[in-house]
Amino acid sequence: METPIFDFVKKYADSDLLRLHMPGHKGRGALGVEKLDITEVSGADVLYSAEGIIRQSEENAAALFGSERTFYSAEGSSLAIRAMLYLIKLYALSVGKRPLVFAGRNAHKTFVTASALLDTEVEWLLPEDTNTVISCNITAEYLDVRLSAAEKKPCAVYVTSPDYLGNILDIDKLSRVCKKHGILLAVDNAHGAYLKFLPEDLHPISLGADICCDSAHKTLPVLTGGAYLHISHSAPKLFCERAESALALFASTSPSYLILASLDRANLYLADNYRARLADFLIGVNHLKAELEKIGFDIIGNETLKLTVAPKNFGYTGYELAEILEKQNIICEFADPDFVVFMLTPETGKEGLERLYSAFLGIDRREPVTAFPPAPSLKVRRLTPKQSLLSPFTELPIEKCIGKIAADISVNCPPAVPIIICGEEIDENAAAAFKYYGVSKLRVIDGRLINE
Ligand SMILES: Cc1ncc(COP(=O)(O)O)c(C=O)c1O
After folding, report:
1. Where are the domains of the chain?
2. Which atom of ligand 1 is nearest to the CA of 73?
């Protein structure tokens, strides 16, 4: 597998060139990586009008992931999600369909900001058995019922799989339901780039999704910000034709070549026996999960590379468990009152797994913690996200927010999955959820609504 971007950047860094172009560090600086940090100089190609080394590298990635086209994002899945929503709207309008999207209610906040920017109409999918805002168990049966009963037919369904807690939806079955109803399936696969390389390929593109984003940086050895936008063979042609302009619509015109080189180098990493290394590492991960269960910890989720511990039955909140581990220099990905999430990759190594297990062994069992979050419920929408983002707001203590309209898109808990969507009315249930997650103040529309 060739690495054209990495090779170009390395050669540029190692040559004696007088850099009279951006960036201002001119290849020198305290970080040590400055010489690799180039811009779109001659020969470096242009992200989002790629015809040279970037296009070549993206084609390598597409071959690895089995997509029709794969596009790089140097600004995470966040950028790819905005592009996905734009492409969906563009497609719907081009074929005279209503640009309505049915989306799992556990969507990342970027989905909400993107739908606000694009003024996309969204209807939420929230199955009855949902007990945390982070997860949303959308089954094929549930989706089929919702789509069959829909008065207004959506043009696309958007789901998050895997979610932050490591739950994977049955994309194969969901895609069959979508095809039956003539609807596109878009997947936020930010946490699942590696799924393609499991012994059983679980990548959304392989299982029938039309389009998806993967944060390469979350589960592959890629610098923060590196992500893919994958388009499947069955997706509307317009997706491939307009993907670069969709990404460019929201992206910086100065992409990081450190990130692009890292995405490029990941192709070689993936092509070089990654599947076998991953399979080998998974034996250790599965063993660790089984051993933790033997000690008495509840492990949730069906995502192989994620370890999500629900420690309340063992007597600890997620925060408490994370703190205990932090004292032993073990830093988790995420903790809240209910869960601690650890993200594992072959780079964690067997030693990393053993170190984590030893730390767990030293924790004494206590009386179970019995506080639970309120089950999420659908809210009354009073404004569209776009209207609410353009309206003046004021900040109030949670108790005074009930009955008011949420203004804030980014209440930072749980992990960027909004408890309430801006424009929705804050009810007792939402207020209780905010309190549970330790949020004491909220921004609400201050009464002077805009007329958009
Ligand atoms: C489910 C989900 N989707 C999207 C994103 C955004 O990804 P990125 O950080 O690559 O922009 C995240 C980030 O954590 C996420 O958890």
Report:
1. 4-271, 275-361, 385-445
2. 10
